[in-house]
Amino acid sequence: MDRTALVLGATGGVGGETARALRAHGWKVRGLVRGLRPGLDPNITWFEGDAMHRGDVLAAARGVDALVHAVNPPGYRDWGKLVLPMIESSIEAAWANDARLALPGTIYNYDPAAQPVARVDSPQQPATRKGLIRKAMEARIEDSGVRALILRAGDYYGPKPGNGWLSQGMITPGKPVGAVTYPGSKGAGHAWAYLPDVAETFARLLDREAELPRFARYHFAGHWDGDGTQLVAAIGAALGRTVKAKPLPWALLPLAAPFNPTIRELLEMRPFWRHPMRLDNRELVAFLGEEPRTDLVESLRVTLKGLGSLE
């Protein structure tokens, strides 16, 4: 079948990996970028424009079968003001083309202090501003009536720097790994999602469009670190040496928060490091037969190489 997808955020982490996975599954892929420039993936048909401008999104989406909304304001700037208007452009473009709108979701829809395990139909009672916005995004998509696919996952990591804890707060891309700065409380489990695995899941789900419900939601379990030590140990295994962990100095972050929007957003996410938050993927496994999952050490080896931190 001749299938075409528009990926908003195709130069980013989840968007770029999803674009590659869709191509591997035989899809034609388009991307929307603010400025055409050398170095863009030649296997993607690029359109110049802004995801905030409906006309740009509509032009790039003309005739597509799926639209992947994997775009976020850079560096969390004006996140609360821009995220909902951006999703409106994608909803309108999906309606105009009767296309499936795919959204990479998060665990922020839930309150980890009250809900250590969440299923796709668990009550969404977010305790953070970002979680409330995420909940509103999903509700707006569902209320619009557009065909939709939401795949919620834990903290993303992968071979490209981006808005993720591993590359923004735990190690320094481009430098050898010394001690890993670990944000979590002792004994608190944490969910990790390797971006190529998430992207492969999106591709497999979109390949089966005819079998999906009109509003489809699934949870991607990913790698579960049951006590906060397994990811650091796997980083050491990927490097071939022992790596020590040091705690994140949470008490010092408020001093820099007024001057740094990224730190302000990270501070709000502290409950997800103090309490375990696990996603139940039984609906996904029932539909696909399995969840795509790369070995943890191998996924970190590829990630560290891509980040320039593999010795």
Descriptive notes:
By secondary structure, this protein is an alpha/beta fold. The chain has helices at residues 13-24, 54-61, 79-97, 129-144, 165-170, 195-207, 230-239, 253-256, 261-268, 271-274, 282-288, 296-306, and strands at 4-8, 28-33, 45-48, 66-69, 100-105, 117-118, 148-152, 155-157, 180-182, 190-194, 215-219, 223-225, 245-247, 278-279. The chain has a domain at 4-156 and 194-222 and 276-293: Rossmann fold. The chain is 38% helix and 18% strand. It has a 7-stranded parallel β-sheet, with helices on both faces. Strand 4, helix 3 and strand 5 (100-105) form a beta-alpha-beta unit. It is globular and about 50 Å long. The N and C termini lie far apart (43 Å).
Short structural summary:
The chain has helices spanning 13-24, 54-61, 79-97, 129-144, 165-170, 195-207, 230-239, 253-256, 261-268, 271-274, 282-288, 296-306; strands at residues 4-8, 28-33, 45-48, 66-69, 100-105, 117-118, 148-152, 155-157, 180-182, 190-194, 215-219, 223-225, 245-247, 278-279.
Question: What is the element layout, followed by pairings?
Answer:
Layout: E1 4-8, H1 13-24, E2 28-33, E3 45-48, H2 54-61, E4 66-69, H3 79-97, E5 100-105, E6 117-118, H4 129-144, E7 148-152, E8 155-157, H5 165-170, E9 180-182, E10 190-194, H6 195-207, E11 215-219, E12 223-225, H7 230-239, E13 245-247, H8 253-256, H9 261-268, H10 271-274, E14 278-279, H11 282-288, H12 296-306
Parallel strand pairs: 1-2, 1-4, 2-3, 4-5, 5-7, 6-14, 7-11, 8-10, 9-13
Antiparallel strand pairs: 10-12
Helix pairs in contact: 1-6, 2-3, 3-4, 7-12
